[in-house]
TrEMBL record, chains A, B:
It catalyses: biotin + L-lysyl-[protein] + ATP = N(6)-biotinyl-L-lysyl-[protein] + AMP + diphosphate + H(+). The keyword ATP-binding applies. The lineage of its organism: Bacteria, Pseudomonadati, Coprothermobacterota, Coprothermobacteria, Coprothermobacterales. It comes from Coprothermobacter proteolyticus (strain ATCC 35245 / DSM 5265 / OCM 4 / BT). It holds the Pfam family BPL_C. This is biotin--[biotin carboxyl-carrier protein] ligase.
């Protein structure tokens, strides 16, 4: 998709995890959601800031992007071979390139103090391990409940730009396939599986 | 899944095609369906036999398996990187190992004569190219229409054995995600995304 991530040395966390979940390919977005919940909770606990999940794969603080998740998979039609979920977190970054200056932030900028990268990392991995176990035990509802509480989208007006379409409406909920349910102005509820989202106030 | 395919030299066709379709991961079963339609049509035309598609990825002649399709993909959450679709066709095989003797056949056994492997191959590739172009042009409905006509499942009683469940009912239709719509005896219509199917008479 031509997306880039800026990662200066020793300032952030850039991590990939390889997983072999017992999921079908259409369930793979659950991994992204599990990762987002674990990271948001770790950031809130360690840095003490109000970190929120922006559907489908960003973490925001004060409306600015502090972390992003990218999940890739190898699969056949009825089962996943493996998944690689990668996360990048801006921890102690204080400067960003011009093109993302207005939309990016870091845990340090948001909390006003240096944040221990190792503490974020260990808390994230510990949270992730717990939720991944829930996922494997078939208890995705628990993760979905956490995701809903941490979301900055639900109940808000959103505009979603997909590859071939644009949609605006109220984000009602997210379902277990990771789809965002959006009530359009026409009154219909659309199931959106991917796209770039902007929040409208 | 521990599946095997028996492939003695010079008797069959064993082929993989790498593709980079503009599809989202949940649409990948369309590739399997496109491949099945192209192969069934090529076999019917060249070998002159009534070859039918058994959902999700087998081709049958007289109720016995003559070809199988296996599609694997590499994807991120909102787009496919690449797909490898593999097909194996029993062309001039006359003998099968004991464990599949009752359920497998070949174009030669079904038609009573030797079948030119090169003719099958070129007809298949030519059919596939045409339908793949339809797929990329957003005209999957055309392929779905062909699939429905070639299916041996629709309107029939089926039993589907999934990883954790079993289901029996009438196969009503297949949808654009490749799901089989099955009307159970309870009267509900279930959307089945994967599983092994047996036809019940």
């Amino acid at each position: 998709m031509g997306r880039t991530w800026i990662s200066p040395p020793r300032e952030g966390i850039w991590l990939s995890i390889i997983l072999r979940p017992s999921l079908e390919p259409y369930e793979a977005p659950r991994i992204t959601m599990t990762c987002a919940v674990a990271a948001a909770k770790a950031i809130r606990k360690v840095a003490g800031i109000d970190c929120r999940i922006k559907w489908p794969n960003d973490l925001l603080v004060e409306g600015k992007k502090v972390a992003g998740i990218l999940t890739e998979m190898s699969a056949d039609m009825d089962s996943i071979n493996f998944v690689v979920t990668g996360i990048g977190i801006n921890v102690n970054n204080t400067d960003f390139p011009a093109e993302i200056k207005e939309t990016a932030t870091s845990l340090k900028l948001a909390s006003g103090k240096n944040v221990d990268r190792l503490k974020i990392l260990t808390e994230f991995l510990s949270q992730f391990e717990g939720f991944y176990r829930d996922l494997e035990n078939g208890d995705f509802e628990k993760i979905l409940g956490e995701w809903r509480e941490l979301s900055c989208n639900l109940g808000k007006r959103v505009r979603i730009i997909g590859r071939n379409s644009e949609l605006e409406g109220i984000a009602l909920d997210v379902d277990s396939d990771g789809a965002l349910l959006v009530k359009t102005d026409g009154g219909t509820v659309e199931r959106v599986l991917s796209g770039d989202v902007s929040l409208r106030e």
